[in-house]
Structure formats: structure tokens, C-alpha cells
Write a structure and sequence with these properties.
single chain, binds adenosine-5'-triphosphate, alpha+beta, 2 domains, 8-stranded mixed beta sheet, Ribosomal Protein S5, domain 2, Alpha-Beta Plaits, 4-stranded antiparallel beta sheet, about 30% strand, globular, 10 helices
Amino acid sequence: MSIAVRAPAKINLFLAVDPPGGDGYHSLTTVFLAVSLFDTVTVSRVRAGDGLTLAVTGPESAAVPVDSTNLAWRAAALLAVRTGLDADAAITLDKQIPVAAGLAGGSADAAATLVALDGLWGTAMAREQLEELAAELGSDVPFCLHGNVALGAGRGDRLSAVLSRGRTDWVLGIALGGLPTPTVYAELDRLRTQRPLPGANDLTGVLTALGRDDPELLGRSLGNDLAPAALSLRPDLRRAMRAGEEAGALGQLISGSGPTVAYLARDAEHAITLAARLSAEGLFVSVRVVSGPAPGPRLSRSGR
Ligand code: ATP
């Protein structure tokens, strides 16, 4: 028997980062949006005692670990420990979400693995139990389990509801190479000791725009405190940000810790025009047209 679950990528429409606390972690205020770029996690039954195996396929599989450091593996191991079951399953990740791109691909896989194995192993976990496991796996995993749109506090793991009326259309510019999230936070701390930085400051604008389905207001309100750090580490992204303005995007921002740049379009048709213009700039390894909100991990196929 096997079960397949689709796991959407996320972008952050707003990300405000506090200075680090005593434990070295930064408190965040963020608006997450799940978008229509999906990994697929497939889990299959194996013989009792065979343990876990992991295979990674797809266009974004190159830099993904296939051992117990993979977040999908960690999710499987954690679910087994908590339910007292033997961790016996074959896991396959079809990676469409670029790695270390600020799109939370690893967290998405972890959330989808919890849902898929809960089905395969028949553990019938309550939603709250899955949420607890998600929070243990990483600060983006609870949102990846939730999907759609949400406001995140704490490390991004304390979620609350956001009213969102319509669909939003985006172009994702996938830049060459990744940016490790801890390096970007360290760069932010370093830059903040040197000078005041422009930051994200219009949370109300983002929330009002989502509630009213007002893409123009949303475009003006997008913000990310990590942008100066990502731009300092990757100066090439400045051109990518300018290219959005020139191509007529309603707004653009670096997604999470980057280096992906998300450009907001007026509607689906505008997103296609925008994608064509941005592709012609030759700044990205790939340009993807996506929309949000996308639902969280759901069973997409199950069979024998
Ligand atoms: P975030 O914004 O949550 O930091 P990201 O999108 O920038 O995430 P990921 O794609 O999740 O980054 O990958 C970060 C690192 O995690 C990778 O460099 C990789 O070594 C490791 N990793 C572990 N499991 C996975 C997975 N299932 N898919 C991708 N990367 C994984």
C-alpha cells in the first residue's frame, strides 16, 4: 500500500524580525502564504523490521540529503517514537521546490510526511498532536501542516488565523544557489550593529489587503526585515528587485531568507506577462507562475 501527499511551498508576505533573545533565537511576526508549487511525498509499506528508506527524485533533488538528517526522515522517526510503532516505511520525495530558497521545502516535506505516515500506519493522530510534532521538527513546519494563509508569532510556529478573501497571483524568480537561513540571520544581526536598517512595517496593510482582496494595497505593504541581509550576501538580487518594478509588478519581496524573489501580479494573466518579462532579463535559473493560498498537505493518491 502507498499514500501520496502534496506539500506546498510558502512565501512570507510580511516578516518582522526582533533582535535575538538570550537563547540566540529571533522572535518573528510573519504572514505566511502557501503557494501552488508542490513537492510530493509518497510513503509505502515495507516488511516489518525493514526500517526507513528515503529516495529523492525530481528536478530539485540534487542538494537534498537522503539520510536521517532529511526533515522527512526526522518526521517519520518522531512519529514512530511518539506512537510506539516501528519506523518501517519507504519514503519518496518528488522535489519540485528549490532547496535553501526561502520556500520552506524541507519543512513542507516534513509536514506532508507526518500526514502521509499517519495514514499509512493508521495512527489516527488528533490534529493537535500532529501540530505538536510539527513544532518539534522546526519553526516553519506548523504552518506547512496548516497551509493556506496564517499569521505566525514566536519563532513563526505560533499561528493565528488571517481573513483572506481572494486568490493572489505571483511570479517566483528562482535565483542560482541557495542561502542558508542561519547565515542570513547572522548577517542581519551584524548589519544592525552598524546602522539602522529599513524594515517591514506595514502588517496592518498586508492584513487589510488580504481581507479586502486588494492586490494594489498588498503590493505596497509587502515587507521583509531579512531583505537587507539577503541583499548584502547576494548583491545580484538588487537587480532582481528592480526588474520587478520595471516589469510592472504590484510589489516584490525576497521570500523568507531568500534568495527567491516573489513578484505580485494583478491577476493570473498579468502573472504570465510578468513571468515572460522577468525571464527575458536572464536573472534566474527558473521563473514560476504560482497562486495562493494553497491548501496544506492532503492525501492526493492512495493505492496498493
Ligand atoms: P526555510 O525558509 O525554512 O529555512 P529553505 O526553503 O530556505 O527553508 P529548505 O529547502 O527547507 O530551505 O532546505 C534547507 C536545508 O535543509 C537544505 O540545505 C538541506 O540540506 C536540508 N534539508 C533537509 N531535509 C530536506 C528536504 N526534505 N528538502 C530540502 N532540504 C532539506
